[in-house]
Amino acid sequence: MEQLPYLDYGSVMRRKLGGRMQKLAIDAGFSCPNRDGKVGHGGCTFCLGEAFSPSYCRSSKELTQQIESALRFHASRGRSADYFVAYMQSGSNTYADTLTLERTYNAIISHPAISGLIVGTRPDCITPEILQLLEDISKCKYVAVEYGIESVYDSTLSHVNRGHDFATASYAVAETKARGIDVGAHFIIGLPNESRSDILEGISHINTLGIDFVKFHQLQIYHSTAMEREWNEDPERFLFNHNFNIKEYSELMIDIIRRLSPSIAIERMVSQAPRHLIAHSPLGGIRPDELRNIVISKMQNRGYKQGDLLL
Q1: DSSP string, the chain
Q2: What b/e readout covers 227-263, taking b as 16+ CB neighbours within 10 angstroms?
Q3: What CA–CA distance (Å, rounded) separates 283 from 303?
Q4: What residues does 218 pair with on adjacent strands?
Q5: Beta 142-150 vs 114-121: how paired, if at all?
Q6: CA 260, CA 176: separation in Å to the nearest integer?
Q7: Domains of the chain by range and CATH?
Q8: pLDDT bracket for residue 194 (50, 70, 90)
Q9: What confidence category does residue 167 fall into, taking pLDDT thresholds of 50, 70 and 90?
Q10: Which residue from 147, 230, 151, 247 is spatially nearest to 190, judged by alpha carbons?
Q11: Can you tell me the distance from the alpha carbon of 161 to that of 43, in angstroms, rounded to the nearest whole number?
Q12: What is this structure's pTM?
């Protein structure tokens, strides 16, 4: 097996589950407190919901139908797996009363093909009761929670209308970990007013969270969002200007990895979305495996490792 210069999420999950895992995206139709007025209106300035859901995953379908559609989708592409894990990606999937969540989660994990549940949500949408529910499920199925944190800087979180601060994220991660549940976090690289040095300095804050795995996404600006309007008004606020390219992003990602704790598994370095939804993207249509291979090759050639710049 290839020796990678960083801790690979897929390898970690194979050891944890005892075989190869495939995620099945599920859209349970949950809303967001940053859209319905509880903490804000209009959502985050960068957000376009349909950019995050595969074509087979639609909340108009019953949960069982979505699982069956997902299984057929991956089978048609020759993707086999030893374990299928339901991934609740779209929306804030702890944003409901506990009884509703219990019914939803149980409907998903009761499907015979499902070996686990990964719940994507916001750090301000968690309660002790919800964590207890997830802890109970974890006694019979694999369970993880993915928090959209996006930035370690409160000024950035406020600027993009996130509706929570970094302290809220730190608390949510700690409370979830205390239940013995794996925790992942999402961070967007290239948000307005964050420089390259800001991003690299922020990795030390990510290291303090105690998360198990991380996803890094390059900022992509979607049509009809508040961020598209901001980009059109003042693109100089953005690290990813018109001249930013794959070479520069791969070098930035290498510098991030070298500062990241070796205990944090890296699941993703770049994201994809349907091209017709994107107004501006610094990397064009590069696939995650292409960027991954570029980063691995450069790190191996230079003898770099994850965390080798940690003090």
Answers
A1: ----SS-BHHHHHHHHHTS-EEEEEE------TTTBSSS-BS--TT--GGGGS-TT--TTS-HHHHHHHHHHHHHHTT---SEEEEEE-SS-TT-S-HHHHHHHHHHHHTSTTEEEEEEEE-TTS--HHHHHHHHHHHTTSEEEEEEEEE-S-HHHHHHTT--S-HHHHHHHHHHHHTTT-EEEEEEEET-TT--HHHHHHHHHHHHHH--SEEEEEE--EETTSHHHHHHHH-GGG-SS-TT--HHHHHHHHHHHHHHS-TTSEEEES-----GGGEEE-TTTT--HHHHHHHHHHHHHHHT--TTTT--
A2: bbebbeeeeeebbbeeebebeebbebbbbbbbbbbee
A3: 25
A4: 189
A5: parallel
A6: 21
A7: 9-302 (3.80.30.20)
A8: very high
A9: very high
A10: 151
A11: 7
A12: 0.94
CA 13, chain centre distance (Å): 16
Residue 26 CA to residue 48 CA, distance in Å, equals 17
Give the chain's radius of gyration (CA, Å): 19
Contact in structure between 161 and 206 (CB atoms under 8 Å): no
The strand pairing partners of 278, in sequence order, are: 222
State both tokens at 79: 């993707």
DSSP, residue by residue, 242-293 = TT--HHHHHHHHHHHHHHS-TTSEEEES-----GGGEEE-TTTT--HHHHHH
How far is residue 77 CA from its own chain's centroid? 23
Whose tokens are 């990964």? That residue is 118
Inter-CA distances, 228 with 51, 73, 233, Å? 14, 32, 9
What is the C-alpha separation between 231 and 121, in angstroms, rounded?
Answer: 27
How far apart, in Å, do the first and last CA atoms of the chain sit? 30
Tokens 């690979």, residue located: 8
Question: 103-160, pLDDT tens digit by residue?
Answer: 999 999 999 999 999 999 999 999 999 999 999 999 999 999 999 999 999 999 999 9
